[in-house]
Amino acid sequence: MHSACYIATIAMEKLKKKVFVGLSGGVDSAVSAALLKKDGYDVVGVFIKVWSPDWLPCTWREDRRDAMRVAAVLNIPFITLDLEKEYKEGVVDYMVSEYEAGRVPNPDVMCNKSVKFGAFLNFALKNGADLVATGHYARIVKSQKVSACRQAGKVKGGVEKSEYQLLRGKDGNKDQSYFLWTLTQRRLEYILFPVGHMIKPEVRALAKKFNLPVAEKKDSQGLCFVGKIDMKEFLAHFSEKKNGGVLSENGDIIGTHDGAFFYTIGQRHGFQILKGGSEQTPYYVVAKDVAKNTITVSRLPREEKFATCDVNLKYENWVSGERPTDGIYTAKFRYRQEDIICHLKNNGNEAYVHFSVPENVAEGQSIVIFDGEICLGGGIIGKSE
């Protein structure tokens, strides 16, 4: 059914001739470009060059070379787009400032918002593109359902008389809809996810069929564009280490750490336990206080003393343009997390989420709300009162 929706969408979008595809040098974006060319689009490959510090392994040149090789095989134009400034300010600076403030950021969310579907999308539209495409595992479908306010003509601009829905990717192991909750109707109008209706083995098989040089290339992991990093070491280049105490659930000092802002809720390494640490069972970070430079650990990953059933949302974004009605949905506040049943409640100008079982959440995390396959949107977890 969803494949049929995807094919129908492709058929309509063929009327829009030019698509700028974000070629990362990986297999997903390469297959996306191949599929779009096969379907009759005028495809342009775009490699996005971002800020890269000199203390990290340099991979962007190799990735760019792979992207160029893909473009050559597909016989499509190739552009290198320099977005170093946008990435440094929108992703790196944001991430560092959030950690220093004691919050837990999600740089991949901001990378999609500021870079891929911000600066890249704007560049594409200003330079003759009708659409952009990436290798994200998510789906976009059009619905003929029009909200009452649109029918009444109270909403001007934006989408015509169609409503775009953001759906989970078909491959549950690769689904990236969690990172896309900031997308809006105005942005979805110009975006394609050609592999979102496929599972990874199918993508690999197509890469071989199209003779793409990255068919066997390993998937990238870690921070958006940068790759796998040791977050503590990364942050140490921006913030000085500051020794502090590791506390037990009872408030006793049982160890030391290098700075409370380096740690995230649920982390189970990077600190030293001096008392009671002889057993093999790991300790988990369940709370932290940046002002006092302490972290609290427990042998239970979800210590109810530090957990909460209620989370308020800041900086909300709802994909439809309207906040969902009060009701029962599912939520994620970490990528690859199992869906958690929740009650979304309207609290005047803000919304909050109620869990039936206390959860260890952290201020600054993205919480994303789903209605079955549909990603409704979400917000940033605010400070617990």
Summary, kept brief:
With 385 residues, the protein is α+β, with helices and mostly antiparallel strands.
Structure, described:
The protein is an alpha+beta fold. It contains nine helices and 18 strands. It has helices at 2-13, 27-38, 60-74, 84-100, 107-126, 148-151, 185-188, 200-209, 231-236; strands spanning 18-22, 42-49, 78-82, 131-133, 138-143, 163-168, 191-192, 244-247, 253-257, 272-273, 284-289, 294-298, 308-318, 327-332, 340-347, 350-359, 366-371, 374-381. The strands form three sheets. A six-stranded antiparallel barrel has the order 13-16-15-14-17-18. A hairpin with a 4-residue loop joins strand 11 and strand 12. Helix 2 (27-38) packs parallel to helix 3 (60-74) and helix 4 (84-100) runs antiparallel to helix 5. The radius of gyration is 22 Å and the shape is globular. Residues 146-160 have low confidence and may be disordered.
Provide a count of the helices. Answer: 9
Overall morphology:
globular
Q: Can you list the strand order of the major beta sheet?
A: 13-16-15-14-17-18
Topology, number of strands = 18
What is the oligomer described by this structure? single chain
Poorly predicted ranges? 146-160
Which whole number gives the mean pLDDT? 88
Helical residues, percent:
25-40%
Strand content: 25-35%
Distance between the termini: 45 Å
What is the C-alpha radius of gyration, as a whole number of Å? 22 Å
Order of helices and strands: HEHEHEHHEEHEHEHHEEEEEEEEEEE
Structural class: alpha+beta
